[in-house]
Design brief:
Blueprint (H helix, E strand, L loop, with lengths): L13 E6 L13 H18 L11 E11 L8 E9 L5 E10 L5 E13 L4 E3 L3 H5 L8
Antiparallel strand pairs: 1-3, 2-5, 3-4, 4-5, 5-6
Length: 145
Amino acid sequence: MARVHIDLPEGFDFSTDITLYLSHINYGNHLDNALLLTVVSEARLRFLKSMGYTELDVEGVGIIVADAALQYRSEARHGEVMRVAMAACDFNKYGCDLVWQMGEAESGREVARGKTGILFFDYAAGKVTRVPEGFAARFTATGEA
């Protein structure tokens, strides 16, 4: 089976620190694989909030998660502070990828990396919609997705 490989961007648009709680830890005494995505989801919410958005309102439309891929790099334990860095890239007509890297904040040890594909969604109409121009302009040279 081919392994998942995630290439990281040269730089990230945002980072935030998130402490791992007991509820994030599994019987193996490390970050549970399913709960890693909850940490990344919290980072995504903070990323959007830093720009004045929510998942339901990015310039009048919402987002939905279309797909996700990740690579584990090392264990993370209760009480460690994870620094999650995120960048918006690979824009298309209806969405983009949010590429992220998670590391232990004090040492810089990489814990995981991945990407989440998001689509912009008009919840009132119940359908996918174009990337809002203002959002795309924050991350692309021309502002065109």
